[in-house]
Write a structure and sequence with these properties.
This protein has about 120 residues and is mainly beta. About 0% of the residues lie in helices and about 50% in strands. The protein has strands spanning about 1-5, 10, 15-25, 35-40, 45-50, 55-60, 65-70, 75-80, 90-95, 105, 110-115.
Length: about 120
């Protein structure tokens, strides 16, 4: 199982970033997928999940209405569109195989820093 994230970087408050995660080593379309973030000095926080076919999504309240999770099973790729970014969104963002307690693999992550 290999999950490789990209797209992180610096953004100003109110700005946008799109994260990508390319999966390999397993049948991507057979798994629910999630995004998890971890801010410095804090524990990991699940922020969003998407079902295998992409027809069901869920978000933590702090990102609901600002972030959009999506997937392209033909490209083995998971996305996270992040709009209206806030300084408190600063964290290492990782994609994960599974949803909730079913998460069983996670990528190395991509850093997102929101600052003026």
């Amino acid at each position: 199982v290999l999950l490789v994230e990209s797209g992180g970087g610096m953004a100003q408050p109110g700005g946008s970033l799109t994260l990508s995660c390319v999966a390999s080593g397993f049948t991507f379309g057979s798994y629910d997928m999630s995004w998890v973030r971890q801010a410095a000095g804090k524990g990991p926080e699940w922020i969003s999940g998407i079902s295998r076919s992409g027809d069901r999504t869920q978000y933590v309240n702090s990102v609901k209405g600002r972030f959009t999770i999506s997937r392209d099973n033909a490209k083995n790729t998971l996305y996270l569109q992040m709009n209206s970014l806030k300084p408190e969104d600063t964290a290492l963002y990782s994609c994960a195989r599974g949803w909730g307690i079913g998460i069983n693999a996670k990528g190395q992550g991509t850093q997102v820093t929101v600052s003026s």
